[in-house]
Specification:
By secondary structure, the protein is α/β, with parallel strands linked by helices. The strands form five sheets. The chain has a nine-stranded mixed sheet with strand order 14-13-12-15-22-17-23-21-20, sandwiched between helices. A seven-stranded mixed sheet has the order 3-2-1-4-9-6-10, sandwiched between helices.
């Protein structure tokens, strides 16, 4: 069950009707949730007319009050937000605690999506979500804070969990006592509590990466954040500094005495407001402060060291850009530039060079030439006759097993015995049950002597991906995901020979065929390219993806759904991703890798000389899109009975030695008009 804690305080009788109207909208948005196993705890913190609050609730939801699904608590006077929140938590009984403010509006699926994510990610202790701000009828900005890869690190620069959007695990292995808010910094009780939990217990925070906001945050004159904005900033600085000092002491980090100071923290948290003629001399010390935080997260367990380094460089780059645009004559600019450039901040250099105000700065002269040569691959490296496959899997041992079974069942070997096929699986899991299932799959396939299959437990996705790409010596490479199923015989050597022949083709797209007329990802019909040409008596088809009638799947050049590329091209594409988007935002997750690969090719107009694509003419495989495990983008899945295809039930299929029916998929393949399908055929013995 989810316990929703909603404090309310109406201090002004004149504004009561307006604020009660907001409260009613907030209340409605909770009652209308698709997930219904909840209780709502409303805490009236000494409002001017407590009876009016009860009246609003009872007029619409008296039955829910009688059933104790909604409870109203009244404080004796105005006790403050921390007291009210902790009282609400103490009066609740849910496994998870969700926050809600009395003037905000939750998306109907907010609780369902956050609950499902928390259940499938037991390592996450506090989960926020994407929010949109609004005032009256005016829609404001949309805010999406980072996921677990960076949210804890980012927390020391700004509060990257929007308080009324969070869902909190009541108990965790990391903290035995139930969650409770800290009153040490009373105006930023949420931020101070997150910092305390991170520094004391090393909890994991994250934000659900959804396609649309799950909370609408209302801004008005009575908002606490508007009334106390300057005092909140001051407490934010003090709280962040306080808990950084705690971590420095606990981890025994060496630091100069004049670094961990409030005036330095102001530059890191509010640089545009803090940098002036008096404070510009403190920038070098702010860089040292950043490096202290970098060391802290290098020593804490569970963080990607390369990602933390990249993020630290990015933060420095933002300050450099501001400094060089506003204080061009600062005598220390050259020294700061040299400090920063030694960190090899490739993507940030490109961003800075795009600022017209910096184009004439002599410090950039050497950077221009180096950035132009970023995407130069060593084509002599890729001479090995064969293909390296890289498959990504998370929490789906059953689906990975079916992917591997179907791959090796349908793989045809060429007469050319020199062509080698090497399979690599990067896998990760969120709990011991799923981990044991992966061990079962690994044991089965490692026992097969006639295949070359390597299993790599994910520890640092970025590093492991780069190792597989940078250390590759095969001529070709193919990326895949674990929900692919092959059901028709295929020959990888034949497909690679097509790329050898078709010099203007970027890749051979095994997922495509001549029946693809629907894009499931965008839920719309698409047109088969008018200039689609069949070659070699139906062996393959070819089209120009840049033509106007090539939409979505017909123009999705960088793909992780079983597409074959030349290894040298992938090397260049990944370097291009890092060049334009950095490691952190570029390749730290399979979905970022795919999305930014396409942006690099389409938006940055790279590889326009390789505008053609090839594919089989008949269906070879499909992506069985029945569940979602990644948290970067909320891609569409087929809407079915969630319990039937839950990760737990699919995992049980693996334990019961069940398999998908490849023959049934083959028989029905002529009806598949989309790359992504929802068909689920099990073998019946």
């Amino acid at each position: 069950m989810i316990s929703i804690v909603l404090p309310i305080y109406i201090r002004n009788k004149d504004l009561q009707d307006v604020l009660l109207g907001y409260f009613k909208e907030a209340l409605d948005s909770i009652v209308q949730q698709t997930y219904q196993d909840w209780q709502l705890i409303i805490i009236d913190d000494g409002s001017v007319d407590p009876l009016a609050i009860e009246t609003v609730v009872n007029q619409s939801y008296k039955v829910l009050v009688e059933e104790l699904k909604i409870k109203i608590l009244h404080n004796e006077g105005n006790k403050g937000l921390v007291y009210s929140l902790n009282r609400g938590i103490e009066s609740s009984s849910g496994e998870f605690i969700a926050r809600m403010d009395a003037d905000d509006i939750s998306h109907p699926k907010r609780l369902e999506m956050q609950y499902q994510y928390m259940k499938s990610h037991p390592e996450i202790d506090i989960l926020g979500c994407k929010i949109s701000m609004f005032s009256g009828t005016d829609e404001g900005k949309v805010i999406q804070h980072p996921d677990s890869s960076l949210s804890n690190w980012s927390m020391f620069f700004n509060c990257c969990l929007v308080h009324p959007s969070v869902m909190i695990r009541r108990h965790s292995e990391k903290f035995i006592k139930p969650f409770k808010y800290s009153n040490k910094f009373n105006l930023i009780e949420d931020y101070a509590s997150w910092l305390k939990m991170i520094s004391k217990y090393n909890i994991t925070t994250s934000n659900l990466q959804s396609s649309e906001p799950l909370l609408r945050l209302r801004k008005h004159g009575e908002s606490v954040s508007i009334r106390n904005i300057q005092k909140q900033k001051e407490q934010t600085i003090r709280a962040s500094l306080y808990y950084i000092r705690k971590l420095v002491k606990r981890l025994n980090v060496a630091v100069e005495e004049d670094i961990l100071q409030e005036n330095i923290m102001w530059i890191l948290q509010f640089p545009s407001q803090s940098l002036n003629n008096d404070t510009v001399a403190l920038v070098e010390r702010s860089f040292k402060f950043l490096e202290v935080i970098e060391v802290i997260f290098q020593r804490l367990e569970g963080y990607d060291k390369q990602l933390i380094k990249e993020s630290t460089s990015e933060r420095m780059g933002e300050i450099i850009a501001l400094l060089f645009s506003k204080f061009t004559s600062n005598p220390n600019n050259s020294n700061l530039w040299n400090i920063w450039i030694k960190r090899s901040p490739t993507s940030q250099i490109i961003s800075l060079l795009s600022l017209t105000s910096l184009q004439g700065n002599p410090l950039f002269n050497n950077s221009n030439s180096s950035s132009k040569t970023i995407c130069s691959a060593n084509s002599n490296q890729y001479k090995k006759n064969g293909i390296r496959l890289v498959c990504f899997s998370k929490d789906r041992g059953f689906q990975l097993g079916e992917y591997l079974h179907s791959f090796y069942d349908n793989l045809e070997h060429s007469d050319n015995d020199g062509f080698q096929v090497e399979m690599n699986v990067i896998y990760t899991f969120s709990n011991e049950i799923f981990g044991n299932s992966y061990n079962r799959v690994i044991e089965e396939f490692r026992s097969l002597k006639d295949i070359n299959c390597n299993f790599i437990l994910e520890s640092s996705f970025t590093t492991q991906l780069k190792d597989l790409v940078d250390g590759n010596t095969f001529k070709y490479i193919l990326f895949a995901v674990d929900d692919i199923l092959y059901y028709h015989k295929f020959n990888l050597n034949t497909y690679c020979q097509v790329l050898e022949k078709e010099k203007e083709c970027l890749g051979f797209y095994m997922k495509m065929h001549s029946n693809i007329t629907y894009c499931h990802t965008t839920d719309e019909n698409i047109q088969i390219p008018s200039e689609l040409v069949v070659h070699d008596n139906g062996t393959y088809q070819k089209w120009d993806r840049t033509k106007p009638d090539c939409k979505w799947d017909w123009n999705y050049p960088f793909d992780l759904c079983s597409t074959i590329y030349r290894s040298s091209d992938v090397d260049n594409i990944i370097k291009g991703i890092i060049k334009y988007y950095g490691i952190k935002s570029g390749i730290s997750h399979p979905n970022r890798l795919e999305t930014n690969g396409n942006k690099t090719i389409i938006q940055k107009t790279c590889y326009q000389h390789l505008k053609y694509c090839c594919s089989p003419t008949i269906p070879i495989m499909s992506v069985i899109t029945i569940n979602r495990v990644q948290d970067v983008f909320q891609n569409r899945v087929y809407e079915v009975d969630n319990d039937q295809w839950s990760l737990e039930n699919l995992n049980q299929l693996l334990l019961d030695n069940k398999h998908l029916n490849q023959q049934e998929y083959h028989r029905n393949s002529s009806t598949f008009t989309s790359v992504h399908i929802g068909n689920f055929y099990l073998q019946i013995k």
